[in-house]
């Protein structure tokens, strides 16, 4: 499993997927190697073998450089012994390195993620690179993995390429740790919540603008940060101004506290717009949070029509926040519907089983580049 920060999962959706899928593949009897970067956590985790390699710590080079070291390591292992039967590569940005794996005759599935070229942090050359990388992923992968139907549609329409749909799983939280909330100074149902990496396409700025336009009396708690995002972070702080109702908690790495924040929110404002099936949204749903989501096809796909409300601008978000405060019972009912939907449709055991079938098909050469392309 190549192309992420590795495990334990402490950063984003890809890392969570690697941990949840990898541990289940190990339990099913498979040997799993995860390439990691950053802080070391031993040579094994939940049965997965961990290989730590360096990365160039620059925004434009970090992921690709680490994957480059990873495929070279895989090359040496393949020469020295049997090596891997299948490679799961996360992020289409790593596509230029796929020919190394193909040279080793290792079948490759690429999890293409969302529409990275739409992220504002990639301007000019960065956007061109990501769009080119998508085409290379189609050309050099034996299979593409899409975590949302909207991503499937994009690759089919743009490249004439088929993909395997495998969504993420959602953690289902039945009994939140209320004591964690109390320690942090919050009470269930008494605050609105934003959890997001600070990037413009996650619309944290819109969440703050909408909240400030509302007549809300309960505070807005903003959880998040981002590397390489000082300018956007400063913009968010300026938008909040001296409004005493808005609190920035920064990154919350205590996962029990984060779960409790989701579960206790009167509303969870989800502004993500380009990432397919978003793990933060699934986590909020699994915790029973009443979701107010930015109105794009990915969010509607995950929430359906009854498990959330949608906004497109500051005015519509302000109205939804006010509605949640006016009728918290109805908001709680939406949260319960969201948790039920997550428990039925986004199950990690099912996700891992789908990955296992995919790997078996790749190892048996039932999936090839020829099958990937329709024309």
Automatic annotation (TrEMBL):
InterPro entries: Glyco_trans_1, Glyco_trans_4-like_N. GO terms for molecular function: glycosyltransferase activity. The keyword Transferase applies. Residues 191-341 form the Glycosyl transferase family domain. It comes from the Bacteria. Keywords: Glycosyltransferase, Transferase. The keyword tRNA processing does not apply. Residues 12-162 form the Glycosyltransferase subfamily 4-like N-terminal domain. Pfam families: Glyco_trans_4_4, Glycos_transf_1. Coiled coil: none annotated. Signal peptide: none annotated. This is Uncharacterized protein. It comes from Actinomadura macrotermitis.
């Amino acid at each position: 499993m190549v192309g992420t920060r590795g495990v334990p999962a402490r950063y984003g959706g890809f890392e969570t997927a690697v941990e949840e899928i990898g541990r289940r593949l190990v339990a099913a009897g498979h040997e799993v190697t995860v390439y990691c970067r950053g802080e070391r956590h031993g040579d094994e985790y939940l049965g997965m073998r961990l290989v730590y390699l360096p990365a160039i710590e620059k925004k434009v080079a970090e992921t690709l450089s680490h994957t480059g070291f990873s495929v070279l390591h895989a090359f040496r292992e393949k020469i020295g012994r049997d090596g891997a039967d299948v490679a799961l590569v996360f992020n289409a940005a790593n596509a230029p390195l796929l020919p190394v794996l193909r040279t080793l005759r290792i079948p490759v599935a690429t999890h293409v993620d969302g529409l990275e070229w739409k992220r504002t942090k990639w301007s000019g050359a960065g956007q061109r690179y990501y769009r080119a990388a998508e085409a290379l992923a189609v050309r050099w992968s034996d299979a593409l993995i899409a975590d949302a139907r909207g991503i499937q549609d994009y690759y089919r329409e743009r490249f004439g390429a088929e993909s395997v749909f495998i969504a993420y799983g959602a953690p289902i939280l039945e009994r939140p740790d209320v004591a964690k909330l109390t320690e942090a100074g919050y009470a269930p149902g008494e605050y609105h919540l934003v959890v997001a990496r600070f990037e413009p396409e996650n619309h944290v700025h819109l969440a703050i603008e909408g909240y400030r336009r509302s007549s809300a009396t309960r505070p807005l708690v903003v959880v998040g940060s981002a590397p390489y995002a000082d300018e956007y972070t400063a913009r968010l702080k300026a938008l909040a101004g001296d409004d005493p109702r808005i609190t920035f908690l920064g990154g919350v790495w205590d996962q029990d506290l984060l779960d409790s924040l989701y579960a206790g929110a009167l509303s969870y404002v989800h502004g993500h717009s380009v990432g397919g099936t978003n793990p933060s949204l699934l986590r909020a749903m699994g915790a029973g949070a009443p979701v107010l989501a930015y109105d794009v096809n990915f969010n509607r796909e995950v929430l359906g029509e009854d498990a959330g409300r949608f906004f497109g601008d500051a005015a519509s978000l302000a109205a939804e926040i006010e509605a949640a405060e006016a009728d918290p019972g109805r908001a709680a009912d939406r949260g319960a519907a969201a948790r039920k939907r997550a428990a039925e449709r986004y199950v990690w055991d099912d996700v891992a089983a789908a990955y296992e079938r995919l790997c078996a098909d790749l190892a048996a050469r039932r999936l090839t580049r020829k099958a990937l392309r329709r024309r």
